[in-house]
Specification:
Elements: E1 8-13, H1 16-27, E2 37-39, E3 42-48, E4 64-67, H2 71-80, E5 84-92, E6 95-101, E7 107-113
Parallel strand pairs: 1-3, 4-7
Antiparallel strand pairs: 2-3, 5-6, 6-7
Length: about 120
């Protein structure tokens, strides 16, 4: 069996336009105003759904991680658009991590991987 590649993630929402606008502002400002967002070769596809709640009741079930080159710069940008942090940026042994909420209450993380033990 050959290894397959992750091509897209469908994000269901009662308000997909609002959610797409937020993700574009937060992580993909260079992307077109409509359609899927290409984030590092993986497409984020936003779809209106009637089988989901307005706010995610289990936000930890699936977490979208954005790998960034500079976590402090990403944090400053995210603060400039008024995100809600659930865990502020912190140094861990091999990376900087920060966790925030998207408008539907889903958990999103930014991660800057670093060499083990460096600051």
């Amino acid at each position: 069996m050959t290894t397959t590649a992750l091509g897209s993630i469908l994000v269901g929402s009662t308000d997909p336009d609002r959610l797409r606008t937020w993700y574009r502002a937060a992580f993909a400002s260079d992307q077109p105003d409509e359609g899927p967002l290409n984030v590092g070769g993986v497409l984020l596809v936003f779809e209106k759904r009637t089988d989901v709640a307005h706010t995610n009741p289990e936000p930890g079930r699936t977490i979208v991680n954005f790998h960034v080159e500079d976590a402090h710069q990403a944090e400053a940008h995210l603060n400039s658009i008024g995100v809600t942090w659930i865990a502020e940026l912190e140094r861990r042994p091999s990376a900087w991590f920060g966790s925030l909420l998207d408008p539907d209450g889903n958990y999103v993380q930014i991660i800057e991987f670093t060499a083990e033990g460096t600051q």
